[in-house]
Amino acid sequence: YLVEINMSVEAWADAAHRSPYGRRFEHERAIDTFLSVLQGNTPPNAAASTISSLYEPVIKARSGNVSVGTLWAIFCGTSFRRQQGARRASSRPAQLGLTAAGLYWRGLPELTMIFREDAMDFQDEDEMEGDCGENQALPLLNATTFGAIYLNRGKQPVGMTCHAEASFMSGVETPYQTPDQQREAEIYVPPAATWILLAGEKIHELCKGDYNRHEPARPSGAMASWLWCGDRGYSLGRWEYWKQRFGEIAMTQGLQDGVKDLARRALSKMDMIESQMK
């Protein structure tokens, strides 16, 4: 079973129902619930409540026959892939994720692992052809929106911090001078800015605490092009560098106005967070 970018929501639901895991009662209901959200027939808060009522009894019973990871695979595959002709519909799963992460699903296991495998696993730019890069920009931004909300509302930072750091590495710690690099900026700068705009206070807190700070491996391959030469993980030094880079990106000629505007907004948010901490 594979979720294709540009697959219609109806085609996705049909494929999911025909998959081996789609025949369990809980998963069947989950597929139908997500389909209804994507079609605009069910509000996100009602869908989140329905999913919670389906899986909570199974989890409490510690049944080994139901994988919560399957629920996350269904959710991530549906929510963050760009559905055919559904730019407008793509905001509904983000709303569902906001409601679910904040009110219902925060304690369910296995999310961050499946999130990595099914929501954040996109094709490398070097391997893409045609407009594939443009096609992956929206689902990556959708996934980032959910991840940032989850990080901001979660009681523990574990899980989403690695995705946030990877986003900053791809979005602000690489140069944007050549035409190819500037095309990559359209994909990777908006997610990096989104982590700051939606979870900036939490990220600043992680930086103050030197969360997961450690010496980096020796740069090689794609890592050799990264501009940041300091420690991996979170630190106030790296926070200051991200600020610097957002400012530089906002002034880089050749980048789209929307990309530069997001960089300016992220920089402004970081300044605001610092002023509130004084």
Provide a concise account of the structure shown.
The chain has 278 residues and is mainly α.
Describe the secondary-structure layout.
Layout: H1 9-18, H2 25-38, H3 44-60, H4 68-79, H5 91-104, H6 111-119, H7 132-153, H8 160-171, H9 179-208, H10 236-250, H11 257-277
Helix pairs in contact: 1-2, 2-3, 2-4, 3-5, 4-6, 5-7, 7-8, 7-9, 8-9, 9-10, 9-11, 10-11
Please provide a written account of the structure.
The protein is mostly helical. It contains eleven helices and no strands. Helix 4 packs parallel to helix 6. The longest helix has 30 residues, at 179-208. It is globular.
Number of helices: 11
User: How do the SSEs run, as a string of H and E?
Assistant: HHHHHHHHHHH
Question: Helix/strand-derived class?
Answer: mainly alpha
Strand count, sense and barrel status of the largest sheet are:
none
Query: What amount of the residues lies in strands?
Result: under 5%
Principal-axis shape:
globular
The total of beta strands comes to: 0
Cα radius of gyration in angstroms: 19 Å
Task: Please give the share of residues in helix.
Answer: 55-70%
Poorly predicted residue ranges = 1-6, 82-91, 123-132
Q: Mean pLDDT, rounded to whole units?
A: 77
User: Gap between N and C termini, in Å?
Assistant: 51 Å
